[in-house]
Amino acid sequence: MKFKYNARTQEGELQIGFVESVNREAAVNVLTGHNLFILSLSEAEKAGWGDKIFSLFNKVKMVDLMIFTRQFATLLESKVPLGDCLRALRKQTRNPILKEIVFEISNDVDAGLSLSQALERHGNVFSEFYINLIRSSEITGRLEEVMVFLADYIDKELMWRTRIRNAMIYPSILIGLFVIVAGLMIVIVFPQIAPIFKEARVELPLITRILLAGGEFVGRWWWAIITVIFLFIVLLVDYFRSKEGKIVFDEISIKLPILGNLFKKVYIARFAESISVLIKGGIPITQSIEITAHSVGSIVYRDVLHDCAERVKAGETFSSIIEKEEGLFPPLVSQMIAIGEGTGRLDEILSRISILYTREVNDLLANLTELIQPLLIALIGVFVGLLFASILIPIYNLVQAF
User: Fold this and answer.
1) For 336-347, what is the mean pLDDT?
2) Global pTM?
3) pLDDT at 50 over 50
4) Is 53 inside any structural domain?
5) Which residues, at least 6 apart from 121, have a Cβ–Cβ distance to it below 8 Å?
6) Is residue 17 helix, strand or coil?
7) In b/e form, how buried is each residue of 243-265, taking b as 16+ CB within 10 angstroms?
8) 155, 173, 204 — which closes off a domain?
């Protein structure tokens, strides 16, 4: 989120500008960290359509962030001072946007800000989870370990996204080719042979009559159909980017027959790993749950975890709250958390939960890739059969008539 601020420096100089952060409280922390006295702070106007389209092509990709974090971790492990690390990273970074961000972070660190405070100024690139882990490492002195973990964490997230995307490439090509071939048949081929059957007074099957009527309609109103589809997609995307739309999309995604189970396992793996690392970093359990709520990647899970943090503050046990959310967390999760609470090894138990569900996600992705292709081929085969049957059956009846 972008906030517009009016503030004064310690010398009394008036400053007006914008700061990007995940929420209003984080924006206040960023500004006060720069020794500014805030006069006003308000959310900036929402970006127009042009800005939204531009932002799609002008952003830091996850692979760039992963490479940056991996290089950062390597330099820190080599005992290179923080300032020198940032200057070296600026030279090595290829993404121009990230290069400029690293330059600003380097300047902020040289000016006396901590690394976490410098990262907070770029909340649109670095998640709250990322920033809070860095902050905890600054307290515990484990910055090298945390950077290595963050690099592995982003690498795993990137691998999951890549595998899901790759699993959908082949089916998408098949569907696209089928739509093109079917469209050509319906719009061009069918109208050419329809008069022959009409003159011969051959009775056409229902499927043929439907396809002929559809081809005639598409041929006459193709421009209107394209316009309606384009507007529908634009409105649908815009709706799913709204607050209400994101909630609806998340609720639908976790209720899908096969993919819903996959998404749940991904969210549980993220949830368990995030809280485990945060607890190990010395962050209290309630704050760890709250931070994880904003980094798990699902609004449905975010709301549940936010409520969970409030109830843990009130004295309820973490496991008893999770146990009541059977639709989102399997009984195994609450049972293992209860064991962790009882033995005082909650961080270790959560780490095991993460490993377990990460393995299940990898297995499910592998099975999904192998399963979806033959199913899709069979489904397209049925449609191709119906398409050719709608032509061959009338031709057969025409031959029989003669």
Assistant:
1) 89
2) 0.67
3) no
4) no
5) 19, 20, 21, 30, 104, 105, 108
6) strand
7) eeebbebbeeebeeeeeeebbbb
8) 155
For 9-27, what is each residue's pLDDT tens digit? 776 666 666 676 667 777 7
Residue 51 in any domain: the answer is: no
Find the CATH number of the domain harbouring 134.
Answer: 1.20.81.30
pLDDT at 402 (0 to 100): 61
Question: How many Å apart are CA 319 and CA 331, to the nearest integer?
Answer: 10
Q: Quick one: average pLDDT of 164-193?
A: 78
Other Cβ atoms within 10 Å of 89 Cβ, number: 21
Cβ burial of 335 (10 Å; 0-12, 13-18, 19+) is middle
Angle at 128 between CA 301 and CA 74, to 5 degrees: 120
* Percent of the chain surpassing pLDDT 70: 90
Q: How many helices (H) and strands (E) does the chain have?
A: 17, 3
Q: Domain of 33?
A: 2-45
Please state, as a whole number, how many other Cβ atoms lie within 10 Å of the Cβ of residue 27: 25
- The answer to whether residues 335 and 285 belong to one domain is yes
